[in-house]
From TrEMBL:
Family annotation (InterPro entries): FlhB, T3SS_substrate_exporter, T3SS_substrate_exporter_C
Protein name per UniProt: Flagellar biosynthetic protein FlhB
Function according to Swiss-Prot or TrEMBL: Required for formation of the rod structure in the basal body of the flagellar apparatus. Together with FliI and FliH, may constitute the export apparatus of flagellin.
Membrane topology note: Multi-pass membrane protein
Cited PANTHER family: FLAGELLAR BIOSYNTHETIC PROTEIN FLHB
Species whose genome carries this gene: Paenibacillus filicis
């Protein structure tokens, strides 16, 4: 920016563009998302699996309630009828605990199994299958008091506080409205038998659990959308970041150009090493040169072992001259071979006649013809 007035609009515009290039305004590239996923950085709401577990657990009580009641009553009946009058011995106590353990497992087993399945499904729906140990690695930044203080007063902390207040308010309203709707039945509980009291209480609790679970699922879905927005925002990149990532993944264009140039030189050197093996070099005479080799015992047809145009053609002719390889000028054939046949390929059938005539002439010059 030498010679430019620092107060000029052009200078300010260039400065603004330079500053803008460092701002993270671009969506994350697939590579950055993949790298973040490998580190365990994914869009995930912890509220969603918990809400699913609560909702489906209470819902499962409606399905397995009768089964659980039967086994619970059977367990108490067995204790009072089969074990109450038994002698307290090690064998009797062991049998008692085995039967009680089996009964308890059968009672809570369905709920436990449903909770595990729902927890796995709730996480899988959000992030799919992911196994990584990076979040478990010891990092000193996690125990940095300054970083912890920043998190306490960050926008995320404010949002989490508001979410907690919203959940408590919604749950409180659901409980209050449900209880107020059943207040007449609640007031009459003192006049009902114990079995009806327990039946009414259990149905009321289950209804509250299902309602709260359903509302929490809605709130959890909204939380997941917010977490995904924060995740995408946190992964945003600047234009310079995208350029740097491209250079790392694809390679620096300057370095790649140098590598390609070196590869071309090496290929040219290998090709020049094969020119002395040729039986003939067919030229244009100045623009193209094609070196052919034919060994009747190993080849079904003459093969192109070197070819080039302009400077490379001159090099081929020079190497051929230095090693006594015959050079024949045939413009149409040289152009056709250069355009249609790659190095290492045999000539096509429609060129057999023309090439055979050239080789016959070469062999005749070398005294190889019959």
């Amino acid at each position: 920016m030498e010679g430019m007035d620092v107060a000029s609009p052009a200078f300010r515009l260039r400065l603004d563009l330079q500053l803008f290039a460092g701002e993270k305004t671009e969506p994350a590239t697939p590579k950055k998302k993949q790298d973040a996923r490998k580190k365990g950085q994914v869009a995930k709401s912890m509220e969603l699996p918990a809400a699913f577990i609560l909702f489906f657990s209470f819902l499962s009580f409606f399905v397995f309630g009768g089964f659980m009641k039967t086994h619970l009553v059977g367990m108490f009946r067995s204790v009072y009828t089969d074990f109450l009058l038994l002698s307290v011995t090690a064998d009797n106590v062991l049998v008692l605990f085995e039967k009680l353990g089996l009964q308890i497992l059968m009672i809570v087993g369905p709920i436990f199994l449903i909770s595990v399945i729902i927890a796995i499904a709730g996480n899988y729906l959000q992030i799919g299958f992911l196994m990584t140990g990076d979040p478990l690695m010891m990092k000193f930044s996690k125990i940095n008091p300054l970083e912890g203080a920043k998190k306490l007063f960050s926008m995320r902390a404010v949002v989490d506080f508001l979410k907690s207040m919203l959940k408590m308010s919604v749950i409180g309203y659901i409980v209050y409205s449900t209880l107020m709707g059943e207040r007449e039945h609640i007031m009459q509980l003192a006049h009902l038998p114990l079995e009806e009291i327990l039946s009414f209480t259990s149905s009321l609790v289950l209804m509250l659990g299902v309602k709260i679970g359903a509302v929490l699922i809605v709130l959890a879905v909204l939380d997941y959308m917010y977490q995904k927005y924060e995740y995408e925002k946190g992964l945003k990149m600047s234009k310079q970041d995208i350029k740097d990532e491209y250079k790392k993944s694809e390679g620096d264009p300057l370095i790649k150009g140098k590598i390609r140039e070196k590869q071309r030189r090496m290929a040219l050197q290998r090709m020049m090493q094969d020119v002395p093996k040729a039986d003939v070099v067919i030229t244009n005479p100045t623009h193209f040169a094609v070196a052919l080799q034919y060994d009747g015992s190993q080849m079904q047809a003459p093969t192109v072992i070197a070819k080039g145009s302009d400077y490379v053609a001159l090099k081929i002719k020079q190497v051929a001259k230095d090693h006594g390889v015959t050079t024949i000028e045939n413009k149409p054939l040289a152009r056709a071979l250069y355009a249609q046949v790659e190095i290492g390929e045999a000539i096509p059938a429609d060129m057999f006649q023309a090439v055979a005539e050239v080789l016959a002439y070469v062999y005749k010059l070398k005294g190889k013809a019959n």
